[in-house]
Amino acid sequence: MAYPVVRMRRLRKNQIVRNMVRENSFNIENFIYPVFVVHGNGIRNEIPNMNDNYHLSLDKVEKEIEELRLAGINKILLFGVPEKKDSLGTEAYSENGIVQQAVRKIKGSFNDVMVITDVCLCEYTQHGHCGIIKNDYLVNDESVELISKTALSHVEAGSDMVAPSAMLDGQIKAIRSSLDESGFSDIPIMAYSAKYASTLYANFFKYGTGSSVQFGDKKTHQMDFANGNEALREIALDIEEGADIIMVKPAMMYLDIVYRAKSEFNIPLAVYNVSGEFEMVENISRDLRWDLKIELMTAFKRAGADMIISYHAKEIARNLKN
Ligand SMILES: [Zn+2]
Questions:
Q1: Is 249 a catalytic residue?
Q2: Domain ranges of the chain
């Protein structure tokens, strides 16, 4: 059957009808908000180019979490900025590292907030790479050992879920077995399974964590942005190694990967709406910004994302609430 019997515009006639047949929407429960913790006291500094996202010292972090809870956000992804860095990223897995301290503090005050910790070494190494460098090359297995140690130390501090982000081979397997052996078999892993070597992270590393690479790049472990099939293979491996949630990062330009991953595996999927994407959206004219954010978040859901990690989350949640 076709026109004139079929008229698609009948179900677009007004907002009530359009809402009735709407296929996808997002809600506050879908959001995970990134939080950056730093050493020191009384610090709540806005991160450059990241409106309303802050570096927070531990004495300021609870107030931020309280505000997020009031807005309806109860899941955060923690990143730490250490005081000192070295070639082995030792602060990443120190019992008194900044993330470990923050987790203890937040979980001590809010048992209804899910604290997810990003697990990598790049914030903690003085060269900004995600592990140990030998002959200008990131060595895999030794780095995975340290990454796994980092994940365990986060969970020992109280982390509810670990999110390994280095894209090293075998990291999910190593983390899963180390958590299981230590009695944490109930702690899930959200794997940055398809993480592309993208220009869109530049601001995050320059200002967010202050850990831009001092030489080379991350293309020996993060993915080539030209590849799609490889992403599915990476995701399949992570699932096999024990990932509970898979992630595609960045989000906006990789919705084909989100769609394919969801169709192929149908397991919980997160997108990371990264700092460069945030900047692009914030730089569009003011009167278009809000509508664009709603369109974008809905597009993530339409493509197949269950969870959205976004620097916009706080603002969107607040506005939806009002
Ligand atoms: Zn890293």
A1: yes
A2: 29-321
